[in-house]
UniProtKB/TrEMBL annotation:
UniProt domain TsaA-like: residue ranges: 6-131
Protein name stated in the entry: SAM-dependent methyltransferase
InterPro entries in the record: TrmO-like_N (IPR023370), YaeB-like (IPR040372), YaeB-like_sf (IPR036413), YaeB_N_sf (IPR036414)
Keywords: Methyltransferase, S-adenosyl-L-methionine, Transferase
């Protein structure tokens, strides 16, 4: 198998209860031109806190959700525990400053200091599925990011 390398384009700053900022490295800031016209973006980030050989070897996710009656494989979850700890989040673009290389978003599920791998504009013609199919155990989950904010996610997971 051929090896390859990935180069972070920036880093996450802040987050949690406060808005998150995506700080884009100077050599990539020119790539932000035109992004300010979009309302949302897809962020690919490296779950660096989960980047461990043992965690990368996991393929069985067990039963992470309360309503499950069977085990899941890691590829049937959004867990950051993966062979390559690549995570994906759709964010709202609250502000884009091309010159400063700064993007502000109200919410991003990555921690402060998380490496950013890529940004792509969210476009409904490519990214939106009108009638997605999901397993029975998660059909009660919200149908959008917006309604997801008020959903009791804590009640869904086994901790």
């Amino acid at each position: 198998m051929e090896t390859f390398s990935v180069h972070p384009i920036g880093v996450v700053s802040g987050g949690g209860e406060d808005p998150a900022h995506l700080r884009i490295n100077p050599e990539y800031r020119d790539g932000l031109r035109g992004l300010e016209g979009f309302g949302h973006a897809v962020v690919l980030w490296w779950a660096h806190e989960m980047d461990d050989p043992e965690l990368r070897a996991l393929t069985d996710a067990g039963r992470p959700y309360v309503r499950l009656d069977h085990d899941l494989g890691i590829f049937a979850t959004r867990s950051p525990l993966r062979p390559n700890p690549i995570a994906l989040t759709v964010i709202e673009l609250a502000a884009v400053d091309v010159e400063a290389g700064l993007i502000e978003t109200p919410y991003l599920d990555a921690n402060d200091g998380t490496p950013l791998l890529d940004l792509k504009p969210y476009t409904p013609s490519i990214d939106r599925i009108e009638n997605p199919t999901v397993p029975t155990w998660c059909t009660h989950w919200p149908q959008s990011i917006e309604s997801s904010a008020d959903f009791d996610w804590v009640a869904e997971f086994r901790f």
